[in-house]
Amino acid sequence: MATDPAECAEDIDAHGDVLAGYPVLNPTARLARYRYPVHRIGPRYQCAGPAVTEHVYLVYRDAADAVRFVLLNPVSMRLLDMLRGTRLTGHAALLRIAQELHLDAEAVIAAGRTLLEDLRRAGALSGTWRKP
Question: Where in the sequence is the domain holding 28, given as residue range(s)?
Fold first, then answer.
């Protein structure tokens, strides 16, 4: 699947405000859950068996068509899952998560802004919708 931003440039602002705007995930982005720490598996590390907890990843293809992945924590996973399923501003999504999990809203919003901006720089977030 191509990830060329020009394919839908008229609908997406690549530099839009991730809190005030409606964040758009890269169209190739998928959430993947594993019982194994797949980010650690390699020639020097082999798993003995499944982990007690799930490891959740955001998997996507970047602009160079390379497969990338990001290990997520439960709050990050909830945010990305919410953004995939609804059209909310970044601020509204983060506020909803803070309320659901009874967390400090300001801290969740600040951390969420950083996450969304990092994901945009990495190519996992395309930008924000120009129209809600």
Answer: 5-129
